[in-house]
Amino acid sequence: MHDEPIRVLLADDHPVYRDGLAALLASVEGLEVVGTAEDGLAAVALATELQPDVVVMDVQMPGLDGIEATRRLTTASPHIGVVMLTMAEEDATLFSAMQAGARGYLLKGANQAEITRAVTAVARGEAIFGPAIARRIADFFAGAPAAGSAAEQAFPQLTAREREILELVAAGRSNPQIASTLFLSPKTVRNNVSNIFAKLHVADRAEAIVRAREAGLGH
């Protein structure tokens, strides 16, 4: 990297967090913040124009989210390293970000040293993940994914509640049985089941059960 500073572009839709993080990064010797973007489209456009070494990208942004922005960015400029910033640690988000080409993954709330380490490592072409994320990856490749993640991996488009209900549908439970098992109103269960059918593009309960069982649910 010679002695030139690492040029960083920051993309986050929350102005207070974005400005705070920009100030934090700018205060680190060897880092230079060359621009900030408030959404995914701006991030892709600015990165293409400025060609930074690293983009620190929020996962959830309006318009174009961080994962799709990363996919476009790494396709157009594969040499730019992307560090994903996220509030949560869902496996589905992590693997989508990795598939999109992100090389680093940090939780919001990471301290200055952690963020600096991630940016520096990614600028050198390494991949870096927080301890919790690294553990998830190790578990995944060891074939011991976190609880409930068979449903997460098979149906990442469903919410946690919808996956829980789909598990019970796959086990052959009726809506009233599901309502009493999960302490929900029958109407809530009905609405969730309708959402599941729509998201899985299935016509009825039987088809949903087949899809879920093929994915290993409900046995």
Automatic annotation (TrEMBL):
PANTHER family: TRANSCRIPTIONAL REGULATORY PROTEIN NARL-RELATED, TWO-COMPONENT RESPONSE REGULATOR. The modification 4-aspartylphosphate is found at D58. This is Two component transcriptional regulator, LuxR family. Residues 151-216 form the HTH luxR-type domain. It comes from Pedococcus cremeus. One of its GO terms (molecular function) is DNA binding. It comes from the Bacteria. Transmembrane segments: none annotated. It holds the Pfam family Response_reg. Residues 7-123 form the Response regulatory domain. GO terms for biological process: phosphorelay signal transduction system; regulation of DNA-templated transcription. Keywords: DNA-binding, Phosphoprotein, Transcription, Transcription regulation.
